[in-house]
């Protein structure tokens, strides 16, 4: 299979400030349509209006944000998508999905998704190593969620230090996505 319809869920991690480069890389590589979901926290970190210029689809900001194509967005968006990528994924959204909490559009869409859900964590090193976070990641992997993390340690945006919990670069992310298509 190919990825022609990609739903990207942006949560409130500092990595969201770089989301434009990731969207461009994904769109250029897969020549795909992209719809976006943003959490309330994500909207405080990156201006939602700026993202509309980087996608051909729509931006959904809350559970009741419906349009004629996606009347019930938490159901119809993942139904439309070949994959849902949560990029960047906070410790909070990871925890919510791992524990069956569906209290906003992104966590509910992830729960309702029949398509593969790919999670790209972005937390600081202490958060990432926290037992609760590691427990949640392990549980999600066992439940079939796919994690994309940098080979080795990634570079933390704020400090430029190498840590676990940083995101892969846009190029590394699409390379790993391409690898997943080959092995699907
Ligand atoms: C400037 C700023 C940067 C943040 N960066 C991160 C981060 O990189 N990773 C993370 O897990 N949480 C981060 N947080 C905390 C989350 O925004 C917070 O846990 C929030 O509840 C996440 O909500 P969401 O998962 O619905 O987006 C940050 C908060 C602020 C104010």
Write the layout of secondary structure elements.
Blueprint: E1 5-10, H1 19-30, E2 33-38, H2 40-45, H3 48-51, E3 59-60, H4 73-80, E4 83-89, H5 91-98, H6 105-112, E5 117-121, H7 125-129, H8 131-142, E6 146-147, E7 154-155, E8 162-163, H9 170-182
Parallel strand pairs: 1-2, 1-4, 2-3, 4-5, 5-6
Antiparallel strand pairs: 7-8
Bound molecules: flavin mononucleotide (FMN).
Largest beta sheet, briefly?
A: 6 strands, parallel
Q: Structural class given helices, strands, pairing?
A: alpha/beta
Gap from first CA to last CA: 7 Å
Model regions low in confidence, pLDDT < 50 over at least 5 residues: none
pLDDT averaged over residues: 94
Question: What is the β-strand count?
Answer: 8
Textual characterization of the structure:
The protein has helices at residues 19-30, 40-45, 48-51, 73-80, 91-98, 105-112, 125-129, 131-142, 170-182; strands at 5-10, 33-38, 59-60, 83-89, 117-121, 146-147, 154-155, 162-163. The protein has 184 residues and is an alpha/beta fold. The chain has a single domain, classed as 3-Layer(aba) Sandwich (Rossmann fold). A six-stranded parallel β-sheet has the order 3-2-1-4-5-6, with helices on both faces. A two-stranded antiparallel sheet has the order 7-8. β1 (5-10), α1 (19-30) and β2 form a beta-alpha-beta unit. α5 (91-98) crosses α8. The protein starts with a strand and ends with a helix. The structure holds flavin mononucleotide.
């Amino acid at each position: 299979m190919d990825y022609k319809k990609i739903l990207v869920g942006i949560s409130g991690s500092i990595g969201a400030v770089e989301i434009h480069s990731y969207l461009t890389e994904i769109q250029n590589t897969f020549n795909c349509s992209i719809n976006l979901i943003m959490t309330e926290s994500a909207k405080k970190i990156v201006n939602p209006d700026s993202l509309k210029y980087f996608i051909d689809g729509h931006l959904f900001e809350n559970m009741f944000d419906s349009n004629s194509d996606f009347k019930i967005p938490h159901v119809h968006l993942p139904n439309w998508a070949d994959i849902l990528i949560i990029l960047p994924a906070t410790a909070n959204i990871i925890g919510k999905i791992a524990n069956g909490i569906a209290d906003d559009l992104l966590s509910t869409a992830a729960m309702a998704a029949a398509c593969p859900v790919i999670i790209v964590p972005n937390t600081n090193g202490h958060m990432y190593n926290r037992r609760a976070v590691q427990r949640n990641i392990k549980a999600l992997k066992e439940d079939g969620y796919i994690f994309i993390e940098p080979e080795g340690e990634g570079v933390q945006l704020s400090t430029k230090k190498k840590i676990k919990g940083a995101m892969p670069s846009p190029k590394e992310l699409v390379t790993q996505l391409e690898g997943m298509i080959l092995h699907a």
